[in-house]
Design brief:
The protein is an all-alpha fold and 172 residues long. Helix content is 76%, strand content 0%. It is built from five helices and no strands. It has helices spanning 10-13, 30-67, 72-100, 108-129, 135-171.
Amino acid sequence: MADGTNLPDEKESGAKLSGPDVGDSRPERPALRLLSTIEYALLYLTACVLLVVGALVLAVTVVAAVRSGLALPERLILVVEELLLVLIIVEVFATVLASLRGARFMLEPFLLVGVVAVVRHILSIVIRLAVVESPAEAWTRLVELGMDAFVVLALVGALVLNRWSLRRAVGA
């Protein structure tokens, strides 16, 4: 595992492995070392791209909010919606960063990203409900809103279950 636990002994595997506390966690075999190096390079590249994209979204949001001809409430909703997108990007960045630091796979960041993404979609629906053109369209938006609310509840339930199981595993 990436966190250095449950690693095989050097005698058993034939490969010299070390945990993050000892130093480099990459194996000694050339092919595995190459693949591990490529993995780290891709993770670093992904982290850098996420930071750049997050900064660009934030900058474009500020410029769009200032230049927009929308009324203040619509402008604020647009800014909040885009800030939630930045939050999603930062949360994915933090997950990549944790992976680079040798952390184990974590489910919680993905659940949080899911919750934020659905809340962002709910804001989008609310904006579209303000300019509904027909009763059928309004009904469709309300059904979509109800489904999104159910998804948020399910994701929050999964988040609670995940945290509960992690606490239980630590206590065991």
